[in-house]
Structures are given as C-alpha cells and as structure tokens.
Amino acid sequence: MAYEIIESCVNCWACEPLCPSDAIFEARPHFKIDAKKCTECEGDHVDPQCVSICPIEGAILNPFSEPANPPGSLTGIPPERMEEVMAEIQSR
Amino acid sequence: MELKVIGQSEDNTAESGCSSSGCGGSSDQLSHLPEHIRDKVHNHPCYSEEAHHHFARMHVAVAPACNIQCHYCNRKYDCANESRPGVVSELLTPDQAVKKVMAVAANIPQMTVLGIAGPGDPLANPERTFDTFRQLTEKAPDIKLCVSTNGLSLPDQVEELCKHNIDHVTITINCVDPDVGAKIYPWIFWNNRRIKGRKGAKILIEQQQKGLKMLTDRGILVKVNSVMIPGVNDQHLEEVSKVVKEKGAFLHNVMPLIAEAEHGTFYGVMGQRGPTHDELQTLQDKCAGDMNMMRHCRQCRADAVGMLGEDRGDEFTMDKVEVMDVDYEQAMIKRADYQAEIEAKLEAQKKSANETFIPLTALTTKKKETRPVLMAVATSGGGVINQHFGHAKEFLIYEASMTDVRFIGHRKVDLYCSGGDTCGDAETTLQKTIRLLEGCEAVLCSKIGYEPWEVLEESGIQPNGEHAMEPIEEAVAKVYAEMAESGQLEQQRQADQLQAGA
To answer: Which InterPro entries match (chain A) (predicted)?
Structure first.
C-alpha cells in the first residue's frame, strides 16, 4: 500500500527531503511516489511525512485513493464558500 | 503649538543637515542608526527611502518549499502579471540562480543587493538557499546578500547563516500573541507533525523571537516585516513593534494585506479586507516611534529584478541568461565606478539641498496656520519628477506641512491581474487612478494630457506639470508654498467641506 501524488501537485519540493524511504522523486509534470518504496512512514513516523507538509489539498491520495488532505482541511476555507466564490469569479 | 522652522532651529540643522524628513532621505531616515549599520544599509534600496531611487535589487526564486501556511498566501498561484510576494514564474536551481545574478549584475550596474525570499521559506530549503549564497560569496563578492524567513527554522539555521556574507535577515512577524496567531496561521510543520491552530502559532512565535534574539546577539541586522490585517492584528502590531525593537530589530516594516478573491487565499476568499491608505499610514505613524518604517516598500515578488517598483525579470529569463556572455571581473569594475558616481551625486545633492531648501522658511513668518496637504508624484526614479501622468504605474505620496515634506508611501496603479476583460464594471483607468489618489490635493508629474487634467481638477486634485525634472521634495515644498500663499490652506479642504455639507 502506498500514497500517491496527483496532478494538483505544485512541485514545491517540500515533501521530497522528508520521505524516510526515498520514495518521492522529481518528475514531470509533477512529483511522484514510488509505490514499491513507500512504507506510509510506518516504523519511522507517527504521521506520513509527505501528507503532513503538503500545502495543497487533494494533491496526495491515501492508499484508499481518497484525498489525504481533503478540501478545507489545510486552508480552513469551507468548500462551499470556495465553490461560491469561484462561481462568482467565473461569471464576471 | 510649537512649530519648528527650517533654517532657524540650530539643533535641527546641526543634527541632520536638513530638518525635512524627505530631504536627504537616507541620512535622516537612518540617522538614528549606529555608524556601522548605516554603512551597511545606505545603498540598500529596500532600507533607504533615498537609495531606492538609485540602487536596484533582485530576488532569485530558489526556495520553493514552505513549512507553514499563512492565510494571505496561496501556494498554487503563479501568474506573470501578478506582483506580490510568494509569486514566481520560474523556479531556479542554485547554479541557475548564480548565473542569473551575475548576468543581471553585469547588465544593471545599480544592482547592489541579492535576496532570497521564496517563493516558499528560504530557511525551509537550507541546501538550495545556502548553496546559492556560498557560490555568490565567492563569485560576486561585491553584492550584498539578504534572506527573508517566517522564522520557524531560524534558530536551527543561525550558525549556518553566520558563515556566509549575509548582513540582513528579514523575519515576518505578524503577532506575538498565539491567539492572534491562530487567526493568521492555520498550521505549521514541526518535528515531523502538522500542528494546527493556536498550538502551532505559539511554537512559531517562540521560534521567531528566539531567532531574532540570536541574530541580533551575533550582530546581524534584522528587519521585521508585518502584514497589517484589519480586525486581526491591526490593534496588536504596536505591541509587536515594541517587542521586536527591544530585541534589537533595526527596522519594522508594516505592509498592507493584499487579498482578492481571485488569489484563492483564505483571506481573499473569505472576504477579509486590506487596510485603507489612511489606516496603514496611521498605524505606521504609531509604530514609528524612534524606529524607522519602510514606507517605500513595494512588496516585491520572490523573483523581482531591477529598481523597486519596476520589474525587469523578463529580460533575464533562464533561456536568455544561458546565452549571455558575462565577464564579471570587468563588470565589477564598471559597477564600482557607477556606484561611486551615484554616491558622489547624492552627496552633492544633499549639500545643495541644504542651501536651497528655503521656501518654507519664508512661509513660517506668516502667522496663519496652514494645514498639511497630501500630494502625489509621478516618477520613474532618480528622486526627481520625471514621469508622464498617463505612464505612471505608481504614485509616491508626500505630505507637505508648515514644518516639512514627508514621504508617506506609494500607491500602485492597476496592480493586480484581473484576468483580462472579465471585470464587469466599466470603470476607466483614469477613474481608477483618481480613486487611487483619494486624499491627495495635487499631483506632480512631468506632463499630463488635457482630458485627465480636466477630470482631475473636477475631482479636487490639482494637476501640476511645472516641476518636471526637479527634485521631488523641493517641488512639493514649492507647490505647498504656492497653495499656502493663495490662502486655500487656511480653510478645510474643498472636498471635505462638500462632504460635511452633504
């Protein structure tokens, strides 16, 4: 089982040096996690390191393919508020 | 009310050579600093109001990672038209950054300072940041190095910082109270955990204060930046100012919050407003005390290049830099000559200002009291009025009073990317500019078109193109003297009267 980085990753490098298994590598268009190497940080840290520092909600999926940091969990912006504001900007 | 009269108070003239705070800006603004600090900052465009007209800086974006989240920042954003901290178009490796710095320094002889400011936190990317500094210390020893940080990992990096030729560190400190911090920082990454809320803010504050003390104890200059967030920390920043000053920070820079919904930041999306010009100025005045404020701060991007207020980054993208042929030895000689010339010119200007700065003296013989006036100035640098009204991307705001001419700050025209023609309201650029100049009674520029002239006059702002190429403070003083002479400063401002009557 492994975590996975998806396309919303902004390539900020924060996670790469933290990975205890060297599973994270720079790639285009975005960083990736080598599923064979990822240990979910078990035995090394209480929390998965990439998930704990990633600033982008939804950019990392947990082993069940769910966002490890769901919408609103990092920015504190309620998802409905975000949708409302984005719709308003689109309609301008 | 006691009025100081220019040229009459001996104390005043002996102290600074000129009692106008705007006149001979760098000596006055920095006059409270010990000699060795003044030596370090006198040609730093970010620290001296006067130096920013003559010297340039650049930032290299080598530090993408961050270890905290601030509610005014969105790590997703990258737009070439945006101008604010945390935004960059091109991330560089240390090797690329060094190449770029040398290319810029060879082509822009005014360049004195290289900063690493992000787009993340430079000290959360220690290898990349210090590799860049290490190479530059060796290859470009004539360039000053500085770095900015949120402070979280500062105590761990102080030793390493001291090894490099870094004489300025900027720490962004928005609060010293964890309850306030909890409203600004949703989380920090600390000891391998994400820590949210008040607990995280408390650790951040402790680290910032500890780092600040460690640096000043080691004689490194520390400037503190604070973002003014109305209703969140605006009442609290006076306290911050006091605390950081006690710990030895040499400058406190209070900047306005930049927040628009389209930036996608917490504050932008939640509708948190930034301070008005007036609120910012009032707070800066309160925090000033005997510590100076950086009213000319432009809140630059983390990849800005050139003089403050301009960005020449497009001329130095990596593809262009790679093919530039740089003879740095030669460039260093040219730079040194150029900078010596500027220093000599400034010195001469300061001396002549001493002699010519008399118009206000004449004024003060009149018994009638005249009120202070805000004026806007269009300039592209050099400390003179040299820009066409319609070409101005920003206006410098000065306050003229019976006693002096004081630089208050700058206001930018059309600063933010609005995503093209998506803006619904039909406000013209001219109307926007007039709104921007609210509170000002005159605008000084090198030239101005007929149409804007009329519209400005109707809005109670007197356009003035009579002082082209003149030093700003002198021109502002002259215009003030004319306004006082005509008697219009003995009454309330016309626009205010209309408002009061309505």
So the answer is: 4Fe4S_Fe-S-bd (IPR017896), 4Fe4S_Fe_S_CS (IPR017900)
